[in-house]
Amino acid sequence: MPKIKQKTSKKQINKKHKLRMESNFYYQKRFSTIAAISLFCFIVLAFHLYQVMLRDQVKYEKRLEALSTKEVEGSTAPRGRILDRNGKVIVDNKAVKTIYYQKEKGRTALDEINLAYKVAPHLNLSISKLNDRMKREFFVAKNSEKMKKRIKASEYEKVKQRKLTQDDILELKIERVTDDELNSFTDEDKKAAYLYYLMNKGYTYDQKVIRTKDVTDEEYAYIAENNKSLDGFNTRLDWERSYPYGDVFRTILGTVSDNGIPSEEKAYYLKKGYSLDDRVGTSYLEKQYEDYLRGKKEVYKVLNRHELELVSDGKRGNDIVLTIDIELQKQVEEILKKEIVETKSQPNTKYYDRSFVVIQNPNTGEILAMAGKQVLPDGKGDYKIIDYTAGVVISPMTSGSVVKGASMIVAYNQGAIKIGEYQQDECIKLAGTKKKCSWKTLGRINDIDALALSSNVYQFKAAMKVAGYQYSYNMPFKVDKSIFDTYRNTFHEFGLGVATGIDLPVESRGTSSDNTAGGLLLDFVMGQYDTYTPMQLSQYVSTIANKGTRYQPHLLKEVHKSTDDESLGKVIYTFEPNVLNKVNTEEEYLNRVREGFHAVTTKSYGLGRNYIDASHDPSGKTGTSQSFTDSNGDGKIDTPTVSTAFIGYAPTDNPKMSITVTSPNSSLENSSINYSSMVTRRISKSVSDIYFNLYP
Predict the structure, then answer these.
(1) Facing residues of 654 across strands?
(2) The model scores a pTM over 0.90
(3) Topology (CATH) of 331-548+583-694
(4) Active site members
(5) What stretches of 302-446 show up as alpha helix (H) in DSSP?
């Protein structure tokens, strides 16, 4: 059925129109309201903005300026000085003229080559350092289009296939430079090539030092006067370390990098806020105390118009004062050189090559002097002496009987011997071993005499009791590892076999073995098994001297804030004596060992007489050990030798100093050991005399 369309009436039409008009009016009214509100907000905002601009103009101008400027650092700041305990400067700074180059972004290799040709004639460059590789790289960079043609299409295709890299392509170009092309280099080409190498050495945008130290006035003036046209070349006053006392204590003072941060430590120093071109301490004290010695560079603001404005002045690093007495150190080193030369002139000293000395304050851990000298063939049939003070902390040896004081403490602690106990010194024989004896048969002796006469057998019998054995001829002797641990734990309390904690970046702990055969325990207690450094022996004897307190040995005494002149500034850090531990034993046991050490140097039969003058009331202990050396340089330790040592302190009741002297491989075994013992004794006597002359 079809729909019927209804007709709309006029009344309905009028009604719809009225509704539409009302709706339009509503929306117009709403729009007007919104517009009015928007206009009001705009007016308020504009007014506020006007106020801000007017009121905060200066503040926002400064903020805008900050956003459009950059701060940069000036040239390298001088490091802090190093002084001895008496205020004598032993490391200083001196200004040196320096020519440097800094690559700018966008500069091509050809630009730098042209620049090298321009600048090279005005510099005193040594082309003797120019090698084949440098010449090839220069030729490739200079003749880039020519060298591109020497790469095959198949080789370029391999780059696309990622079978070769661009570095590989560069190496191929370098290889394909002909000999004739290399031989065509003129002197002008060579100077430019070497300068080009210096300009591109190291990090790309880092400052490259081109010339320093021996820069002439003419060189310096040319670069300084023409730096604006030389595109990256400039001059500056740099600093290098100077040493008023020459080579005295030079090794331990350490070194500073020549050309910025060493590549292997780049990440470490950049995290600490360093720049790539900053010079840093690279060894020993310069490295150990880098944070104190580092200078503060000038800071400049680079303005929009490329002008520099000084923000803060540069400043020398803080000064550090050492515990070392440089005059004592100087004389100790001279004595070592003299005695080494004298000993090398004697027979049976073929393998003697070094001696060491440490003088320490046993009550604080302060090192007053430490020195080592080594003798080496000079290649002309003679010898030369070099500094080897580092050996004090890194060169261990079997030290012999000097350790018997610590061995005695273990025996007391374990109840193996009693104070005043007598033992028969006689050769002993264990199953499956050769006889073991003292240096001679000493007969019936007590604990004091055992130290004074350096009895091996007394220590052997005590060690057997510690292990649970009573000696009988040809008896089997097996010990548990725990017995070695018992001895080593006490040795560690004295500083033997552990890090001493000295404030240097490197230190050896000596060596020990896991072999715990019974016979080796007997070797251990007389100093013929584990090895110790001179610094460990120094800490050991200092602990005995002060009655059982192990102090950290140290070279730093104070840190002073830098000043604008040569005076010392305010103290900002003092190294206070640091107690590492106290020896776990009875006071009477330590006193008994001290009494034995006193007998060593003062009794008519003591083996340590004349190592320290008797007028100073010394105590100490000698040591002689069998050692081995590499006789022919094949890496095999095969030749038996004798090494000697002495440790001591004075005065006995209130020690001011302790001394350690070691002389490894000072004579051949089975020969007269006079020369071996004499060198250690002579050094000890001379050094201790000098000390008491300076500190009466």
Answers:
(1) none
(2) no
(3) Beta-lactamase (3.40.710)
(4) 401
(5) 326-344, 391-394, 404-413
